[in-house]
Amino acid sequence: MSFRYNNGSTKTPIVTKSVTISGASNQLVLSQPLGGTPTTGSLFVLRSAADTDPFFVALRNGDQQNDEVFTFTVVDNDGVTYRGNKTIPADYKPNGSFVSVKNATLDKRLDLPLNATEVTTVL
C-alpha cells in the first residue's frame, strides 16, 4: 500500500504514519480462534516510521462473493488526515490473492482552520 492526495490538480505522495482500513461489508477479519467465529471490523495499521514507501498488509475478508469498497483513513507524519475509497472486485478476494493498493488516490482531506485563541479549560 501507498497513498497520494489529489487536491483536484496535483497528486502528492502522502507520508503515511498510520492507516485505518474499513470494508463496506464490515467483514474484514481482525482475529479468528481455531474453529471459532471471526471478530470483524476496521483494521488499524501503525507504521514504525512514516514515509511514502509502499508497505504490505495482509487482509482477510469474510465476504468473498461480492465486490468490496475499502475506505482508507490515512494520517501523515504531521497529523493531517486523508480519506478515500478503492473498490476491490470479487475475483481478487479469494484467499491467497495479491491486490496492489500502490498509489491509491485519496480525494478528501480534513481541514480545520487555525485559531490563535488559547484554550484553558476542558469540557
Q: What do these coordinates show?
A:
Strands 6-3-7-8-10 form a 5-stranded antiparallel sheet, with no helix packed on it. A 3-stranded mixed sheet has the order 2-1-9, with no helix packed on it. It has strands at 3-6, 11-13, 16-23, 29-31, 39-40, 43-51, 68-76, 81-88, 104-106, 108-109. The chain has no helices and 10 strands. The N and C termini lie far apart (38 Å). The radius of gyration is 17 Å and the shape is globular. The chain has a single domain (3-109), classed as Immunoglobulin-like (Sandwich). With 123 residues, it is mainly beta. The mean pLDDT is 89. A hairpin with a 4-residue loop joins strand 1 (3-6) and strand 2 (11-13).
**Mean pLDDT metric:** 89
Number of H/I helices: 0
| Strands side by side in the biggest sheet | 6-3-7-8-10
Number of domains: 1
Q: Would you identify the regions where 5 or more consecutive residues have pLDDT less than 50?
A: none
CATH architecture: Sandwich
The top-level CATH class is Mainly Beta
The percent range for helix content is under 10%
Number of strands: 10
What would you report as the Rg, rounded to the nearest angstrom?
17 Å
- Helix-strand pattern: EEEEEEEEEE
Q: Any idea what the shape is? A: globular
**Classification by helices and strands:** mainly beta
Termini Cα gap: 38 Å
Beta-strand share of residues: 35-45%
Write down the CATH topology. Immunoglobulin-like
As an assembly, this protein is single chain
Largest sheet: 5 strands, antiparallel
